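User: I'm putting together a teaching handout on how multi-component assemblies are represented. Below are the sequence lines for each component of a complex, exactly as they appear in our records. Could you produce the 3D structure of the whole assembly as structure tokens, so the students can see both representations side by side? Please keep the chain order the same as the input.
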Amino acid sequence: MEITLTHYLVLSTVLFAIGLIGVMRRKNLLMLFFATEILLNAVNIGMAAISHYRGDYTGQMFAFFIIAIAASEVAVGLGLLIVWYKRTGKIDLDQMTSMRG
Amino acid sequence: MEVYLYIALFAPLVGSLFAGLFGAYPKMLFTGVIASGLLFASFVSSAILLNYVLTGHTVHVEMMTWIAAGDLYIPFGFVVDQVSVTMMMVVSVVSTVVHVYSIGYMAHDKGFNRFFSYLSAFVFSMMVLVMSDNFLGLFIGWEGVGLCSWLLIGFWYHKESATWAANEAFIMNRIADLAMLIGIFMMYWNLGSLQYDVVFANVATLPMHIITWIGIFLFIGAMGKSAQFPLHTWLADAMEGPTPVSALIHAATMVTAGVYLVVRANPIYSEIPDVGNAIASLGAFVAMFAATMALVNRDMKRIIAYSTLSQLGYMFVAAGLGAYWVALFHLMAHAFFKALLFLGAGNVMHAMHDELDPFKMGGLKKSMKGTWIFMTLASVALAGIYPLAGFFSKDLILEVAFVEQHYILYTVLLLTAGLTAFYSFRLVALIFHGNERHLEHGIHPHEAYSFMLYAMAPLAVLAVIAGMVFKTPYYLMVTNLLPAMTYHIHNHTTFWIMTIGTQLFVIAAITYAYKKYAKAVKVDKKVESGLLYQLLYNQYYIPKIYDEVFSKPYLKLSKLAWKEIDLKIVDATVDGIANVIYQTGEKTHTMQNGNLSSMLRWMVIGLVVLLVLAVAFTAGYNAVNLQAM
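Assistant: Of course. Below is the structure of the complete assembly, with chains in the same order as your input.
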């Protein structure tokens, strides 16, 4: 069976859905980061696949940018997470309610 | 010459702005002095322009563009011709005198600086009114004098009656101004211009009914400003203002603006003699009507105000019958002696500590010799005794009515002349002769400052000579622009009978007034409780009728609109909208509970909604566009 663009896009969608559900359901901040990474990489797969099939490298370049930004985002995020853990001893989302409206 | 035009026009404005700078400060003498000085400069410039116009020239300048949109082009243009220069002289002479007089009259008033600011602003507006070369500029001046009149009637704004009178005057004038504006619009609509020269050159080409309507609407505007029936009630109430204001605005200048308008628009009114006749009839009616009210009134200033009203009626008779130069001539002469009369009344008021009832005065000629002489002189001029100003201007109007064969108008005006003489000298006799009734009220009168009397002297001189000396040169000058009609009664016998008859009639009225009021004042209870006396004393009950017919129903309507429409519909709608928004916020603020995962859920929901919308709209857009192709 040949692997077509549709397969890649379906994979991308499935990954994106998993990521969204993770973002909504997870209470652990670390897990939230994982879910975010899944979301970003779902998009990367879509971009790289479409780029390949169209013969246009713009999409792949964007995938690289997204990877770079994701890496830096995780670096900053993890740093904040560690600080938060040192202060409170927990990384539970439900306890972070200081931004109440 | 243009520089003189600009000085005459803008010197009062400079004075007004200068005095206005110190409006909130206590009295500063120099504001009055400088404003008066600038007015004098305006007077000198006007005199130079008069000299120039007398040699047969006119000045016409276009200062700058005012409105230019499409075909509509209206400049700030000013014209000094035979008519406007006459008005400029009247305005600048009277206002200079009144300014100097006011320095004394307002000397102890807290609003001294403010007063001069308003007064000079009025003169500026009046100058714009008379000098403009188009109807819209005239309208701006017209509104300007209306505004200044409002400011000055309500000058003592802490007095309820003064603010009421100011508002009454303003509102009545608005009603008339609406009609005038309609007239101006009709003129522009049909002729495409508002410049005097263009309008007057082309007005005869219009259909008759359009000219008639333009004439009627313009005249309604004039009726408001000149307080003609039925819009007359504001003038008597306007006497709440300071007396110099009454002298300048409500006797000499602003109220004559209506006459000026009719005189200026004479090519329009010449086309429609029927409207002219209506104007003349209304004028004669008002002359009589106002004079009868003056007969029994017990308020010195109101008597003079009714007298002004009556004389305005005379002017409209002349203007309506096509004797425009006669109307303008009476306007000029009247301005001089009526302003003098008012300023004299101001002196009396000061001496009497603001007492206005002449029945509480008497015998003032001992303590106030100068004022007595001036007021008697003004009253003689007003009554039209030879050789004072009134004789030449007022009797001329009688002759006009006679020559034009309007014998009813003539009779009415003749009777009014007798009434005029009677009420003028009733006032003089009550104030200056007889026993000193004011002593009972503990008042010790004193003459006004001598410089105030010196300020009045030019008016006194003019009241004496204006008729005799100015008539011929004035006629020769002004008939360059206005229709040159002479009104001579060809039969010499008739002429002499009429002239001498009128004089005798007037003198008889004066004698009767002196006889009745100069010695002791007897109050005849039977006459005073009579129907006629009560009718006249209550001003024909017209203020009451207006109150019942217009004011009270309007108040009811306003209350209805307030309670039923405003509160129950408008306010309810606005409150309802606010309530919905508030409730929505109240209900949804739980969304922002600070919990990151619930916020993320909302974010996902928002994302899904946006995606669905984007897809739906793209699909819809494509469907429509494909169909169109």
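A couple of points students might notice: Residues 336 and 461 of chain B are 9 Å apart (CA to CA). The longest strand of chain B covers residues 59-69.
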